[in-house]
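User: What would this chain look like folded?
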Amino acid sequence: MGSSQGGFTPLSRLTLRNHGWIRVRVRVSRIWVASNPNTGQEYGLDSLLIDDEGVTMQARAPPSDMKRLKHQLVEGKVYALSNFMVCTKMKCYMACRNGLMIYMGGQTVVDEISDDAGSSIPLHSFEFVDFGDVPSRNKDNSLFTDVIGQIVSIEEEGQAWKWEAYRNMSFRNLHLRDVRGRPMNVALYGDLGRNFDAEKVAKKGRDFSIVAVFAGMLVQLYKGIGFTVRSTSASKYYLDLDILEVQELRASLADQHKPIDRLPCQLQNPINPTELVDNSLRTVEQLKSLNPHELHSRTKFLCIVTLKGINCTKDWWYKLDAVMEDATGAMNIVIFDKPARKLVGVSAEELVEETTGEQFSAIISSHQSRALVVAPHRGGFMVADVLNDDALQASSSVKMESKGVGESSQDEENMEIKEEREPKRQKNARGNEAEQTDSE
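Assistant: Here's the prediction, encoded as structure tokens.
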């Protein structure tokens, strides 16, 4: 493996192995905590690195090393890295197309290099997607999407309900257009949208066009909106960045002085949690009186129950045939891997080799009440989600009352993402159309 001048190895020459004696000189172009904003779970500290050759590679540090590296790595600065491991890229949430990535651990050495020595390394790297190709990335999370366009309008902040977080999540929609005049919707969730200074941007837009870059995004088909480039925990936006692509786009705009429109939020679906609980809460006795075959497939109920155990005789690593109980009775319920993972903290696949079914049953069984989202499934019911402690507290404060059975209220039908086929002209994109409630 060769080294460039100064004893640094280019990213292009790294191979799959531990590299204790190899040093690379890279700029941290972007850095973010890879996380699920709905649950707060953090997966690691990710960064996009660039070297002197302009080659990019993603790096990750596990949660155990995040605190140290958060203080050592600063976005935009140049570092010499050593004692790291090179591994195959992740299957999803990659910021560049490089087939390899760097894994930084407790032994990784980070030395800052003066900016003069690293001035040849670019500050930014993007893999822009043409607006016409955005639909083909619908719900594809293998590679983040970067887009560039002129801001033509900005909506006011909106609110959308997220079951996983059991709260309303804020978002802001923006509308772009490219050099051909084609439109594109952008949705910024959480702090990214809340901290977007719409007034300041619109004011600047009175004098000249604002060209924005949105990086680390995903594509979602939203009902009533269309294909949207939405933010993730990796997302960043840049306004009037000093790069060639921004300069070329601005020079090619037909109307460079069009003011930015300020619009009300066009589509939002906030929910009052108290009303939600009141409309959806069911006891075990009430659930048992329902005919699952007569319920809408998107119907969801909320149950406050304890889990008493599972059937350990077969397939417990694939699905859990569990028993849930409250003061009104007990009933069987099916729990697949995602909700089961929330209950125990790890996936069934990670437990199957070291844990017996009886041990797993003991793990999930307790006298602790749990807030479960229950949905009809093949003539019975399954656990669609497990809510957090805040949800349980809110649910426990609501008085349980008997309700009519066999029907789902409009609120209940609107609790989850709705899927529809997209137009035939978009056959190359997966056509799952969702309410605007997503934030990965």
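The chain has eleven helices and 20 strands. If you want, I can go into more detail on any region.
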